[in-house]
Amino acid sequence: MVQFSEQQMQEFNRLVKRYPEGKQKSALLPVLHLAQESFGGWLSVETMDYVANLLHLEPIEVYEVATFYSMFNTQPVGKYMFEVCQTGPCMLNGSDDIIAYIKEKLGINVGETTPDGMFTLKTVECLGACGYAPMMQLGKHYREHLTKEKVDAIIEECRNNAARNN
Amino acid sequence: MGVKLLLAKAHVEGIKNYDVYRREGGYQSVEKALKTMTPEAVVEEVKKSGLRGRGGAGFPTGMKWSFIAKPEGVPRHLVCNADESEPGTFKDRYLMEHIPHLLIEGLIVSSYALGSNDTYIYIRGEYAWIVDILEKAIAEAHQNGWLGKNILGSGFDCNIHVQRGAGAYICGEETALLESLEGKRGNPRIKPPFPAVKGLWERPTVVNNVESLAAVVPIINMGGEEYAKIGVGRSTGTKLISACGNINKPGVYEIDMTISVEEFIYSDEYCGGIKNGKRLKACIPGGSSVPILPANLLLKTAKGETRYMNYESLSDGGFATGSMMGSGGFIVLDEDQCIVKHTYTLARFYRHESCGQCSPCREGTGWMEKLLLRLDKGEGKMSDIDLLWEIQSKIEGNTICPLGDAAAWPVAAAIRHFRDEFEWHVLHPHEAQVRNFGLAHYADPLQVPAGA
């Protein structure tokens, strides 16, 4: 069952308190981020309904927001999501080669997840790292100046982290 | 070395921390404003400074502030636009990452000027780690009495909250940003009413870019008139330029708007010339929305005059032969880059980011992307180029918000200046897949400095 822990509930309350009385809908985006982080990296209908209930919204108000913003995943994703930028400035610095290399290395296409559920490859549009291209977002942070060697090291790092956490 | 007002202290060890920032003279503008100036006087200084919005539109900040409605008993809000998403632009990120207290300081003074007791920073969702940096700076400012109730005994209360977006370029448009801040889809609103009258929660609101708000600090410290002496003409003060693409030294540079484009690209103080000893082919000087210029029109205007890095000079010649300062996202293309492919990636970007409200933008951006992909792959027809031109002309000016224009302009400029390259893709479809069109006649006919 989808349910925030006590600590997550404290964070929820902190977020809602930032807005005036009766304007709790403003907390929707931050709360959806919290929910996505808390419940496996994506927003199921159950999760969205739970958020709607917490914020006293109609479920449709949550669905329409969750589907509008590209950072919200409405399908399950892998444990590690490679979000590789492909817009102009990254393209000028070889993002196509990086994307092709990741595809080959992981044996998946853009939008797919490896069978072990470890990696998802996603292409994204400009993330504001144009001077440090090519780049990808991995979790909360950016990985910049990507090369094939760096991609290898990142994959290795993820595998090691996953093994350690098991 | 030009004047540095925003980044002068950005590389002082530990400047991210309050103590260091304060020791280096931080928060003096808050003392000056709250202890010696009325809110109206602060607005007046910003007007005198000539500061123009640094997000892209270049609208005078002081004038924007003076429009805010003040109905009795209705709270007003300042919202900081940190939804930096224009391809080629990463200056606000740099400022927030390196010297976050400068933004917080600017926000306190600006909130005082506008009477905003609850001020919001709306930051793009992907800048997740910067949220932590800002929240730490805000907490430090609180602990030291710069935020909270009755700041410095002035009777002014202020809190700053950070709101994360979730991946939508459109939320950089101020009314879409406000919708998003209200927990909705980022659909721009029809104006009027303008945010200054009915903004966040229908309250009077001013939305300003990060860099504009940070610039309020030096403006108050030195006075608006002194600030206006820096730069040239109506391009006053300093501007952050984020340079990227095929250059030796990509990064964020603070310029005082008196240097030439040629110096900016080739001098070691800035971009350091074109990477790998190649030649300059083209450049988008102000973020992906503004017109791309071939090298010859970038370095000199159509009249043969030197082009400078300021609002007036970059737009000299209008869209026929000029471009715009925009957000300061400076994207450089070397001789090996394909204009058709590059334009395609931008068209794909705008299709992805269209909110879908207005048909010309929703449908038009998709058609432009498809046509450009077809042309890039060597599967296009000559008539596709004309069709592309026609579509972009039907988007421009026909949408609620400027995203339509922003999507149309790069396509129009690419065809205007590089039509022969598009035609070459149609006439030599196979060759186009393996070889770049090259420099052709529009390329830099000027003397290229040694080593470039």
TrEMBL record, chain A:
Q: Name one GO molecular function term.
A: inorganic cation transmembrane transporter activity
Q: Which domain of life is it from?
A: Bacteria
Q: What is this protein called?
A: NADH-quinone oxidoreductase subunit E
The organism is: Hydrotalea sandarakina
Q: Which UniProt keywords apply?
A: 2Fe-2S, Iron, Iron-sulfur, Metal-binding, NAD, Translocase
Q: Which family does it belong to?
A: Belongs to the complex I 24 kDa subunit family.
Q: Which residues form the signal peptide?
A: none
The cofactors named for this UniProt entry are: [2Fe-2S] cluster
Q: List the Gene3D superfamilies hit by this protein, alphabetically.
A: Glutaredoxin, NADH-quinone oxidoreductase subunit E
Please give the biological process terms from Gene Ontology that the record holds. inorganic cation transmembrane transport
Listed InterPro entries: NuoE-like, NuoE_dom, NuoE_N, Thioredoxin-like_sf
Q: How is the cofactor bound?
A: Binds 1 [2Fe-2S] cluster.
Gene Ontology CC terms, in alphabetical order: catalytic complex; membrane protein complex; organelle envelope; organelle membrane
Q: Which residues bind [2Fe-2S] cluster?
A: 85, 90, 126, 130
UniProtKB/TrEMBL annotation, chain B:
Q: Where is the NADH-ubiquinone oxidoreductase 51kDa subunit iron-sulphur binding domain?
A: 340-385
Which GO molecular function terms does the record list? 4 iron, 4 sulfur cluster binding; FMN binding; metal ion binding; NAD binding; NADH dehydrogenase (ubiquinone) activity; quinone binding
Top EC class of this enzyme:
translocase
Q: Which InterPro entries match?
A: NADH-UbQ_OxRdtase_51kDa_CS, NADH-UbQ_OxRdtase_suF, Nuo51_FMN-bd, Nuo51_FMN-bd_sf, Nuop51_4Fe4S-bd, Nuop51_4Fe4S-bd_sf
Domain of life of the native organism:
Bacteria
Pfam families assigned to the protein according to its UniProt record, in alphabetical order: Complex1_51K (PF01512), NADH_4Fe-4S (PF10589)
What is its biological role? NDH-1 shuttles electrons from NADH, via FMN and iron-sulfur (Fe-S) centers, to quinones in the respiratory chain.
The identity of this protein, by name, is NADH-quinone oxidoreductase subunit F
Q: Which organism is it from?
A: Hydrotalea sandarakina
